[in-house]
């Protein structure tokens, strides 16, 4: 297929039997980016024919995850359950043309068939007893059972395709038995629906996980039986966890929305996923616009990618530092509200964010830092014992006295701090540490002079006076 004259059309087609996890998100990102790179179209399709396992909650989770990541489809979402009549029309067509047939084998008969084959050292498979062939006499049709519909897979030759990630793959047709494409209740099966959808939607490039490699030869044969264009295939290798094992809930195989809850920015997650199996030289940090300009299928590694939480955290810290203060304030405000904290007008949340964002690697840590400005400080007893000593109280008292009249700006407060420690002959931490603890309850804060200016003067004085007056 010449993509120079054909509009590239990619798709992301998750099954709503669980959440959208990191592996699925990477697949969606690559399919979306390739469509953008080629000025093509990206389609979202929900493969919900597994009625027993599909749930509305899972569907919504997928839509929420895609929206949070900003992977907006050009078409869709389409739902397979709304396309049942189309599938049945094609099934009738294939039965009429002889590329599909009714099979009356029961599950019990199929299992006996496989047991006999295993006993002979053969690969267990459907024997083809109901497969029509010239000159073959089929068994009498049982009156007491509904048949499934099987695809009449070619017997000879092989299926060959040039996978855009894994290279040339060849599977002998003799390895493939006749696939069930519709159940006894006429509900079509996964491999059949996928082909019809990709055909109808004009999909040119199927980008998906390599757990689908075994499905591909079956699907290619169905495409051929229908006389449909066969898309290009690109199968992405799996993602391993930090420990090199298959990704589990301990390290990344959680809902994409869990990353939102854990305080990650979507652009950090996207940037990290982009590099999880693809590279552009040594570039580590880039925008999604740059990614779409650079992205191709040639530079996707065929080997497994390894998830690295430390690297993701580093990227998240980078994007938090770069983010607009007002945006960060808007993101952490609801996190504070969830803790029952009302953000007052002063001190201004965006100013607090601006001072603390250099020191955190997630939004929850930023919210925890901001919390101290809207709640009464509750320093740990051991911190008070360590830093609020009989020797530090006179130093604090002199500083508080000067704080009542000093200009409420960083340079003036910095000068006051230096004056007090010089007069008392002590080093900076002797004053800075108790100030941090009494104002915020925290031992680690940004520069103490900037910290003080975040509070209105009366609130800062109230906290400090109360702190040195209380028995500790």
From TrEMBL:
UniProt xrefs under PROSITE patterns: AA_TRNA_LIGASE_I
Subcellular location field: Cytoplasm
One Pfam short name: tRNA-synt_1c
Domain Glutamyl/glutaminyl-tRNA synthetase class Ib catalytic: 8-314
Catalytic activity: tRNA(Glu) + L-glutamate + ATP = L-glutamyl-tRNA(Glu) + AMP + diphosphate
Chain positions of motif 'HIGH' region: 14-24
Motif ('KMSKS' region): 246-250
EC number: 6.1.1.17
Top-rank EC class of the record's enzyme: ligase
Main location, first listed in the record: cytoplasm
Annotated Aminoacyl-tRNA synthetase class I anticodon-binding domain residues: 327-468
GO molecular function: glutamate-tRNA ligase activity
Keywords on record: Aminoacyl-tRNA synthetase, ATP-binding, Cytoplasm, Ligase, Nucleotide-binding, Protein biosynthesis
Top-rank taxon, per record: Bacteria
Binding partners and assembly: Monomer.
NCBIfam families according to UniProt: gltX_bact (TIGR00464)
Protein role: Catalyzes the attachment of glutamate to tRNA(Glu) in a two-step reaction: glutamate is first activated by ATP to form Glu-AMP and then transferred to the acceptor end of tRNA(Glu).
HAMAP family: Glu_tRNA_synth_type1
Family membership: Belongs to the class-I aminoacyl-tRNA synthetase family. Glutamate--tRNA ligase type 1 subfamily.
Protein name: Glutamate--tRNA ligase
Organism: Dentiradicibacter hellwigii
Gene name tied to this protein: gltX
